Design the sequence.
């Protein structure tokens, strides 16, 4: 194999590019078709559907106007099917990796395997695992691509011999860097990588004195310095951000209030984030994610990691490096990689810290490791080259690539589950509620680990389903948490303004709902008689009594979720029958409840959550079908903890022997025994 490929050296470039594609594909593509929309996707998606590209642009004029323009253009091209966004984000990430490979090989052309492995580490870097959240984070990947392309063009500018080529390359570099920083101001930390490369380029191929080196570096940086300076003047002097985290005068005021404390904080957090991006990223995210994998998923992740390792080994076998471990280069010594990467990673994490944000492997805060990824990959490449023997280097490189692939796959599994819970929420609510009254405040709670965080994660999909074509928030929503449970108990009416979208949340018109745990259906609570699952969070029990089931309009035609966004309607398993039976119970259609119960039984369906028997039990009681009454009552009474909790709501029940409908009294006595036993 060696002799075959050595006669065709041009194949190595294609093999390196293909290796990148296959390894990244193993990390991101196997589950791409099961991803959906998450977090900040929703308010942009609602604007795109209801207001068009102008709505997306308008939302982002508050803090990042260029990002809004780019976002709107990509939305216009891709449409609203989640898979299109997944493939686009994957393509952008691969393009960024190819640009980095081009940059590295222009610096170290004789270190083929090292530069490929550094690029592989960049492509599957586990410290950023938001790839599945493609609708939002393609913006970040596009900006990062622009930033890396600008730096690569700067290197070509330094080497260009002709004046015209220099002007052209400098202009392109300025354009892409300005585009990057105008999309995300904190990505200005990429300038550290540019400066580090220019510093070391000044001593290649011959060493230079310190002042000569500084002068040469500044001359080469001057075009981009003008571009960066112009951007900073616009950002600080002319542009007024409406968000505190991107409002530079507001940040400056806070720093001036306590300069010493803030300087110490920046230094401490800078080195902490540097350590986390360089080292912790290869272990902490995987440790956090692997616990939610099933054994089958663990095996699948390990298989993909082994596949990526096999691709890397195949490359090494096909193209063994002639200078493995050497520091020979026509451009600069490979030993410089450690210091270039270290400095680049440090400067990359500083801007978010200055804005009082920093790298955390939770809640999307890992995005602040994005600009450090290239520096981390270069630093690790240089470190491994410096401290390990040639025979050990490739083993560690391959192990890190495998960890990256496994972590990214684990992240995709998490987002697949998150999307599945969201789809359950909206499809089951659609089965349960044909329509919802305007001014309703939807208050849902998903299982722990997958909970919604912001109101727009609720009102945006709700209005896309129940009020299509309406250019306002007709149905509001809030995530159930400690704060909103207080608003519920106080029955407040609050005004909201989210990126120029104004609406009101009237907690007197709340509809509280929850998926208590895996296996449970969506439970839409009736505040007059809430039925709690054993798995319900205390927040649900605190808030359930304020849920107004009358906000569901039971007699209108159903509004189906748009399938291009929410996917095809799920199979009609137990939860379908439970939701339809709950709707029929609200209508008082007991014949329909019993019909649904018999149909579900004929299909062998039954709940995993015992509380979901109650609509059917009540239906059989109303029709006095004693055989089914006794069967379900036996199931319900078999769980002592459920019965105790359920019967507590009937402590003040007073039977009326003259009432025409004795069904409620029968249920109380049948399930709870004599009323004095309940006390």
Sequence:
């Amino acid at each position: 194999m060696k002799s075959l490929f050595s006669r065709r050296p041009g194949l190595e470039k294609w093999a390196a590019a293909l290796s990148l594609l296959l390894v990244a594909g193993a990390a991101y593509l196997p589950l791409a078709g099961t991803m959906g929309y998450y977090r900040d996707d929703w308010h942009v998606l609602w604007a795109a559907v209801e207001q068009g590209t102008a709505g997306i642009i308008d939302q982002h004029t508050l803090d990042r106007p260029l990002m809004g323009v780019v976002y709107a253009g990509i939305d216009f091209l891709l449409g609203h099917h989640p898979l299109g966004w997944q493939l686009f984000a994957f393509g952008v990430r691969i393009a960024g990796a190819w640009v980095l490979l081009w940059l590295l090989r222009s610096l170290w052309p004789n270190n083929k395997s090292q530069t490929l492995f550094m690029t592989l580490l960049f492509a599957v870097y586990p410290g950023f695992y938001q790839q599945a959240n493609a609708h939002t984070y393609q913006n970040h990947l596009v900006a990062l691509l622009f930033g890396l392309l600008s730096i690569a063009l700067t290197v070509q500018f330094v080497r260009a011999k002709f004046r015209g080529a220099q002007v052209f390359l400098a202009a392109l570099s300025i354009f892409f860097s300005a585009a990057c920083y105008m999309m995300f101001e904190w990505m200005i930390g990429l300038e550290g990588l540019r400066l580090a490369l220019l510093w070391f380029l000044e001593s290649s191929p011959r060493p230079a004195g310190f002042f000569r080196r500084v002068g040469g570096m500044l001359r080469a940086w001057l075009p981009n310095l003008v571009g960066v300076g112009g951007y900073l003047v616009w950002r600080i002097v002319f542009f007024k951000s409406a968000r505190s985290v991107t409002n530079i005068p507001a940040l400056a005021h806070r720093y001036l209030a306590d300069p010493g404390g803030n300087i110490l904080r920046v230094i401490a957090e800078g080195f902490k984030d540097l350590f986390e991006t360089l080292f912790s990223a290869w272990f902490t995210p995987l440790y956090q994610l692997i616990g939610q994998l099933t054994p089958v998923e663990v095996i699948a992740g390990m298989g993909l990691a082994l596949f990526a390792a096999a691709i890397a080994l195949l490359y090494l076998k096909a193209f063994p490096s002639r200078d493995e471990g050497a520091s020979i280069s026509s451009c600069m010594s490979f030993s410089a990689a450690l210091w270039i990467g270290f400095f680049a990673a440090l400067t990359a994490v500083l801007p978010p810290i200055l804005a009082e944000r920093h790298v955390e492997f939770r809640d999307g805060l890992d995005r602040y490791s994005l600009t450090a990824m290239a520096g981390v990959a270069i630093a690790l490449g240089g470190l491994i080259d410096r401290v390990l023997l040639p025979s050990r280097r490739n083993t560690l490189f391959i192990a890190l690539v495998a960890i990256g692939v496994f972590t990214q796959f684990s992240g995709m599994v998490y987002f697949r589950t998150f999307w599945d819970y969201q789809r359950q929420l909206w499809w089951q609510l659609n089965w349960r509620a044909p329509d919802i009254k305007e001014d309703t405040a939807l208050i849902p709670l998903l299982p722990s680990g997958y909970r919604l965080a912001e109101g727009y994660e609720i009102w945006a999909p709700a209005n896309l389903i129940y009020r299509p074509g309406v250019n306002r928030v007709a149905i509001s929503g809030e995530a159930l948490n400690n704060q909103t449970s207080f608003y519920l108990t106080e029955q407040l009416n609050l005004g909201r303004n989210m990126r120029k979208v104004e609406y009101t949340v009237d907690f007197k018109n709340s509809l509280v709902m929850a998926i208590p745990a895996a296996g449970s259906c969506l439970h839409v609570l009736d505040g007059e008689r809430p039925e709690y699952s054993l798995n319900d969070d205390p927040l649900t029990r605190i808030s359930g009594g304020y849920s107004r089931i009358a906000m569901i309009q039971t007699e209108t035609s159903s509004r189906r979720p748009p399938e291009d966004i929410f996917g095809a309607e799920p199979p009609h398993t137990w939860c379908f029958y439970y939701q339809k039976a709950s709707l029929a119970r609200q209508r008082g259609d007991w014949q329909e409840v019993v019909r649904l119960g018999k149909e579900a039984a004929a299909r062998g369906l039954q709940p995993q959550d015992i509380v979901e028997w109650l609509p059917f039990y009540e239906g059989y009681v109303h029709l006095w079908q004693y055989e089914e009454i006794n069967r379900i009552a036996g199931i319900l009474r078999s769980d002592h903890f459920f019965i105790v909790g359920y019967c507590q709501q009937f402590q003040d029940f007073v039977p009326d022997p003259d009432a025409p409908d004795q069904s409620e009294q029968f249920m109380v006595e049948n399930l709870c025994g004599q009323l004095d036993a309940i006390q």
